[in-house]
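Trying the structure run again after the queue cleared.
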Amino acid sequence: MTSLWGVSFDATPISGVVVEFVKTARLFADQGHDVFLDLGYDVKSDKGEFFRPYGEEAALLPDWVRLGRIAGVDRIAGYDRNFVAAVLRDVVGRGGGVHLLPDVARIAAELAELVVVTWERHDVEFVLVENGTLPENITYTTALYQAIEEYGRRRGLGRFVLWRDHDLMWQSEPGSGKYGEFPYPATPRPVASPHIHYLALHEEARRRTLEWAPHLTAIDVLPNTFPCRRATVDPRNAGFRLAYGIPPDAPLIARCTRIIPQKRIDRELHLLAGIPEAYLFVAGDAEESPAEFRRLTAVAERLGVTDRVVFGGWLAPQETSGHYGVRDLLAHATVVSFLTSYDYESYGNPIGEAIAAGVPYLTTRYQLYDTVYGGKGFRGVVFDPATGDLPDRDFVDQVRDLLHDEERRTDMAEHNYRLGARHFGQDSAVELLDRLVLTPMDERVRLSVVLPVYNERANLPEVLTSLYEQRGIDRACYEVVVVDNNSTDGSADVVRRFAREHPDLTVHVVAEQEQGVSCARRTGMRFASVRSHGRVNGAERFYLVSADADCRVDPDWLAELFTAMESGKAAIGVCDYYYAPERFADRPRLWDAIIRTLRCRHVTWALFGGFPDGKGFAVDRDVHDRVGGIEIFYQLRDGRFVSHLSDDWDFGIRVRGSGEEITYVPRSRVEINPRRVDHTIEEVIAGRAYGSDGIIVMRDVRPPGALAGADLTEEEARQAWEFSIKDFTPKNVILPVLLTPSLLDDDAVIEFFTPGLAERLGRRIAEIIDEMRMIDLTPIHSYKTPSYRLYLEFADEIFARLRATVGEDIGYPPPLPPCLADVPPERFAEFVRYYCEDRESGEAHNYFGNGGVF
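Done. C-alpha cells:
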C-alpha cells in the first residue's frame, strides 16, 4: 500500500501545525494511503528532543496516523543538537559561520540518502512538509530538497510534495532577528521543483513568498481549515468541569496553546484578576518550557488567581474514548482567549477552532490578525498591544460584559460560525487538494470546460446535459469544472448528482467565495490549468474553455472549437452566439435590433477574430498562464470595491496585445438565454445594460415573473439599436486594429475599410498612441479612450462600410453628443479628446452606454 509521509518542523507532539497535518492527511487516509508523521524531533534544536525515542505521543493522534522517523540520523557524524543550534545562531542569524558550511553540505547529502531509503521502504507516494522553509534547520531543509529531487526522478513522479509553511521569517518573531533580515541570504529559498507544490496560508503570505522567491510558479493559498461543528455538552463530556474543579455556572475562559513565553499567557492571568467570578483553563504541556511554567504560576500566585487557573495539560485535538479533548473544553467554555504576542503568530488556530465550534473569542490584534480574521468581518473582543503590554481596564470591562451577556455571545458566535464555514470550511481544502494531487488528470483529457455558477439550479440539468451529449469528441477528451460562486439554491448538489449519474464524464465542483462571475471564471481557469500541468504528456496543447451556466451549447460546439484550435496557431478560439428566433416571434422590432447586431458581429469577427465572451471561448493553457490568466479589475460603487465585469474582454485584449492571434469559429455555436434581454431591455434602451457612469456590473437577470414581455415601440427599438451599435462599433471594429495595427495591412481588412480609410486609420492610431504616450493598451481604462476617440472621428466612414458590407439597414451613426454638435469642424478631433479623456467615468461612457447584452 502506498503512503503519505509527513514531516513537521515543529518538533512537538501537538501544535497547530500537527493538527493541520492531521486534517490534511485524513483526505489521503480516506483514499487508502498509509499515513506516517515524523514529528521533527531530529530537526529543531530548542526543544531538547533530539534523538529521543517516541513515547506516549501516539496517544494524542488518531489511530490511523503512525509515527515515523528517518532511521540512522543519529549516526551521521557531527549532526546533533549543538550543530543545528550553531548553524541557526552563526550562519542564519549573524550571516557568518563560514566554517560550518562544508559540514552543512556534507550532512545534508547524507541526510538526503537516508530520507530516500526511508521513503522507498514505505512506498511513499505523497509527501507533506510542514514549515520546512523556516530556517530553524537549514541542513535538514537542504536535505529534503535533495531527497525530493532524487526520489521524484527515480519514481517518475509529478508534483508529489505539498510544502506548506505556517510560519515564515516575516511571520514568526521578526523582531528577534534570529532568522536574519530580508532577503534572508542564509535560508534555502523555495526550489521551483517539478515535484513540489507550495501552499501559503493566505494571500499576504503568498505575496511575501513570491517577493522573496519570484521564480516560483506552483504556489497556491490553502487556509487552515476547521470542521464546522458546534461544540455541545453531551453525556460524553458532561463531567469535564467537575473533573477539573470548575464550578458549573462560572464563566470559563479557554486558552488552547503551548506554554512558552511567546504565547503571553500572563495576559490571561491579568485578565482573570479583573474578573473575580471567572475561571481560566490553559491546555498545553507544562513541561515544554519549565521556566515559563514556573513564571506563570508565580504570576498567578502574585495576582491571587491560583485557585481559578487550571493548567490542564495536553488535550487531544480529536475526541478520544476515555480522554477529554479540545472540543470538550470548547463545549464548556464561555469564551476562547488568544492574547498572544504581536509578532509571533501567523494564523491563530485557536481563533479558528473557536469560530468553527460556535464559541466567541478574545484576541490581541497580533500582526496578521486582520489579514486572517478581522479583515474578513469576524467579530471578537480585540486587545491592541500597541496601547499597552497588559489588558487595560477598558478591555477587562468589555470581556466581563461579554461573559455576562448571553444574547451578545450567541449573536457573535452565530455570525462567526456562518462566516467561518465560508472562509475556512474543509471543502476548500478538499477542492484544492483534489485539484493538486488526489485525483490526477487523465492523460487523455485535452480540454477543461469552466462553468461559473450562481443560483442556476433550474438551468443546470439542461446545460450539463448539453455538455455531456457533445458529438464528434470522446468524453475522455474533456472534463467539466463547475465553480460554485456562493449559490444558495443547491446548485452544487445538482452538479454532484449529475456527476454521480454520468460517471463517464469527469465533473469537478470547486468553490469561489468572492462574488462575481469574473472571479469564478478566474478560479476555474486556474484550477484547470494547475491540474493539467500534472499530466505526463506535456507536448500536446491543452485548452481551457469558458461556458456560461444559463446558455446551451450546440452538439458540435466543443468538437468544432477543438478542431479549429488544433488546426491553427491561434491562442484563442471565439464561438458564435445566437438566439432562437422562435423565442422572439411576437417581438419583431426587438428581434430586428438583435439580429442586426449579430450580423455586424459575424462580419467583423470573421475579419478580426473577435474577442472572447464568457459564453464560449477556448484559450491555449500556456498562453493563459503566460499573460497571467484572468485578471480582475476593481471599481468603486457606493463607496465599496466591486469586481469589474469585463474580465473576458480584458483577457482577450491582453492576449491580442501580447502578439497572439484570435480566431473566430462560426461552426462552434452557443444559444444565448433570452432572459439576458428580457430582464435588461429597459437598460438596453437607456444605454446602461451593465451600469452607468463608468461602473460596469452584472445585473441579476433572474427575478421572479414571466420572461418574455411586449415588443418594443418604434422609438424604443431605435434607442435600443443606437446603444447597441455604439457599444459594438468601438469594441468590434476599431479596437482590433487599435491593438494590432498590422491588421490594416491585411487584404481583406483593407477591402472592408477601403484603402484610403485603412491608411488614414493607421496614421491616426499611431498619432493617438504617441500623443497618449502609451505603450501598453491592454487595461480597460486605456483602450476605451482611444477607441471612443477613433469612433467619433471616423463614425460616418465606418458606418458607410458597415452599410456596404452588412446591409443598408445598418443605417447611419446615432446623433453626436449635444456638446460636440456646435464644435467647429477644424477643432472637432481636439474636443473629442477632451470629451473622451475621462476614460469611463463620465459623459463619454454614458453616451456610448452598454447595449452589449445583445
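The radius of gyration is 31 Å. Worth checking whether this holds up in the mutant runs.
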